Amino acid sequence: MVLQIDTSEPLLRPSQLSALVCAVRDADPHDEHRWIEWKSSLDLTTPAGQGHIVKHVLGLANRDPTGASRWAGGYGYLLVGVEPGAVNGVTSVDPEVLVGQVRAFVGSTVQWTPELVSVDGAQVLVVIVDPPRPGDPIHCLRKQLDKFPPGTIFVRHTGRTDPHTPGDLEMLQARLLERTPSLQLTVAPVSQTIETTPDIIGAADKWVKQRRPELLAARHQPTSHPPTLGDIRFPVRSALNAFPPKVRPDTRTEEQYADQVEKFLTKAKGTLVDRGIWDLYRHSAALLQMRVSNPTDLGYTAVRLVVHIPGRVKGYSDAMVEVAQDDRPNFPRPPKPLGTPTVTDNELLARLASGYGSLVPPVSFPDLGRSLGPGPGYTVRDSGSVDIEYREFELRPGEIMTLDSVPLLVREDPGVTLTATWHATAAGVRGRLTGEFDLVIAESTFDLANLNRDDEADQ
Fold this sequence. Notes:
Distance between the termini: 35 Å
Structural class: alpha+beta
Low-confidence stretches: 229-234, 355-374
Helix content: 25-40%
CATH topology of the largest domain: Immunoglobulin-like
Pfam families: SLFN_AlbA_2 (PF04326)
Domain Schlafen AlbA-2: 32-162
Number of helices: 10
InterPro entries: Schlafen_AlbA_2_dom, Schlafen_AlbA_2_dom_sf
Mean pLDDT: 85
Largest sheet: 6 strands, mixed
CATH architecture of the largest domain: Sandwich
Strand order of the largest sheet: 10-23-22-14-18-17
CATH superfamily of the largest domain: Immunoglobulins
Protein name: Schlafen AlbA-2 domain-containing protein
Strand content: 15-25%
């Protein structure tokens, strides 16, 4: 399993370090990775305890910059006094004294910081090692440490720190000689959950099934007075009421009326589905929004990012996008109940008498488009699942950019976790950066009950 903490940005603030300790306490024993190591306890006043610090500081400093940048902005962490299931704490130590003792073994070119964090009533030492960079020297042991002679090179591997292998040495030599910087980005979703797509067609069918018997049984209820302008308050009302309209009886048969009802229900169902698409396109919990950050002091241009979401996930079809980007569809009017007379000679009175007119024109909702952020826009490709390719963008040094929200159709069951992957390139930098993140499918909170309401612009 993955350590349950957001590693899309560096963990440096006290609250973040406390959260990191808690994440280790709640972790699986096998969750250690290239960027983090923990020890249940160490006596930091002894050479053996200090030797563990030395070994892991060197190992975390001797990592590949591209690989390291995938977690916590490239920072490495050693936690002492915590393990899965328990916060044991450490004996209080003066950080400045510890730094001096460790520096004698690691030298002054390695940048690292010890921090004491209090969790569950105990103090935990968190050692933070700065991210490795292209051009960094190969960090080696400066003096004898136990059985390891001066010059020993420690490298961090998954779940352990060991003396270097031939492959490690090649990587470190390439890092030292690298003149063109490699791409270093952190890419993660703003929310780690996305809702499953609701059954819009099923909701429309249910509405039609409920309305059909009501409409078929509807009959005109005659009134004892001729139609008038009612409560409209202006002086012309009395004058208009003095000229009663002509009324023509309804000539429709039962079969003709039933046919009108079916045509209305067919059109209404299509409108309900289109409204569902329109509203879902703006339903924030059903959108994927990515955040990209540049943890370096270099600016990147022409950054290209592609995110792949596996499983039963698709983008909107061209027809659906056309519906979603137009005005919200107006709901059709049902046929007048059977027996409703037709009023003639006065169009205003006719409309009012039949119950299908007003002085206020029908309301249409403007095309708000999709919820746009400051990002570059995107293209969605269905490939058995879905690929989202963002248009080229720039990232200034230290900049964090939130990309445009992407509406997706998710057919996975709630509770399913999808492991998404991504890759990125940029102009003037070496290689292609890759990474992954988890996306948890949540139950839909989309409102299906009010798609026929004209006062609901979005959900």
